[in-house]
Amino acid sequence: MSEKLRLTESERLFREAQELIPGGLMGIRRPYNFVPGEYPIFFTHGKGSRVTDADGNEYVDFLCAYGPIILGYREDEVDEAVVAQIREKGSCFSLVQPVQNVLAGKMRECLPAAEMSVFVKTGSDATTLAVRIARGRTGRTKVIRCGYHGWADWCVEVKGGIPRKLYEDTYEFHYNRLDELEDLMKAHGDDVAAVIVTPVGHPLAHPVEEPRPGFLEGIRDLTRRHGSVLIFDEIRTGFRVSLGGAGAFYGVKPDLVCVGKAMANGYAISAVAGARDVMRVLEKEVFVSSTYFPNSLEMVAALKTIEILQRDRVLDHVRERGTRFLARVRDVIARSGVCAEVSGIPQMPFVTFPEDASDAAKTYRGRRTRFYTEVIRRGVFLQPYHHGYICWRHTEADLDKAVGAIAEALDEVRREFGG
Question: Which residue segment(s) compose the domain that 395 sits in?
Fold first, then answer.
């Protein structure tokens, strides 16, 4: 068993934060979403594939800020483009800057669905706007969802503070269960404004799934037959699985697509893009506005990020490295004899510990905790309840370090729990 990390300063900062901010910090970044007492709580800086915590511990980061880091932390070309915009032009004005049009043109070039685009800030902004557009376009009320779509009233899993009437028209089906969607469409199809789905399944704490043959195609067919808008939530997969997103990769074109995270390498921007006849309801029928949506720094960062993705074949390299990484981790798990599995696509790997119906003691939880404790102690940053990411700046040495840490962590799990 390896030595526990020194986390004194992180813990001091957390105690301080709890006096200033409810819970100290928000949502999925709270310590209980990791291994309390073993994981850092505050980072101070990062570069490339590495991050450093408040106590000076350095990690190879495979969480990538929950997805926005597609190139690497503090990517010089991106940051220099943003600094130049600050110094030479500024970013927040009463009117829109021309860079908006340049980025919208780039979206049209990359994304098959993007005849028109609207830029917002977060994933929740984008998915909520897409649903509003669909309702405005169809005049219908109901929404059928599959996946995590953010923290807005219509879709957030934790319902505290939200009146039931604000989400009672949202229905849910499970990923790769086309039969469930068929049943919902039979019951509600005449009033379904939209079906929104993550084209790659990534339910919280569960294995990442690719679409089974016919799943996405079946959703496309059902929405056409019922006159509903098909929305692909590609906040995680857009500009990561391919420049055209997972929809292009799997050959299914939605009416609307939501992208964010990887499109600007950490700068706060997202977008809704889609068919002209659907998007044009924003001209009169549907309202969207924000003081900060037109700010240009994030647009400049997105343009430079996409330029690098195209110029350097970044996503090909990420896929190649991720494919090798998944294969190596599968081999390590198979040889360990531990009840664990690695799922995902090459860009989004995830090591999980399945619950066995015969496991009355729920030892899968203990195996998971021991595994992720040992991994973080070895300087590899992964999340127990959320899939990881591969970025461009992950080197072969980084991947070797991660595979070695995973192998050693599994050895510790086997010693404590057996298989």
Answer: 8-73+313-417
Taking the chain (419 residues) in consecutive chunks of 10 residues, what is each chunk's mean pLDDT? Answer: 92 98 95 96 98 98 98 98 98 97 98 98 98 98 97 96 97 98 97 98 92 98 98 98 97 98 98 98 96 98 98 98 98 95 97 78 88 98 97 98 98 89
Do 256 and 354 lie in one domain? The reply is no
| Secondary structure element (H or E) that encloses residue 102, with its range | helix 99-110
Out of 290, 311, 332, a domain closes at 311
Q: How many DSSP H helices and E strands does the chain contain?
A: 12, 13
Task: Specify the DSSP class assigned to residue 383.
Answer: B
For 95-121, b/e burial (b = at least 16 CB within 10 A) is: eebebbeebbebbeebbbbbbbbbbbb
Using CA atoms, how far apart are residues 167 and 118, in angstroms rounded to an integer?
25
Check which CATH number belongs to the domain holding 45 and give it: 3.90.1150.10
Amino acid found at 248: A
Distance CA 11, CA 40 (A): 8
Structural domain total, the chain? 2
Cβ contacts of 378 within 8 Å, gap of 6 or more: 2, 401, 404, 405, 408, 409
3-class DSSP assignment, residue 419: coil
What is the model's pTM?
Answer: 0.96
CATH number at residue 127: 3.40.640.10
What stretches of 249-382 adopt beta strand conformation (E)?
256-259, 270-274, 341-345, 348-352, 380-381
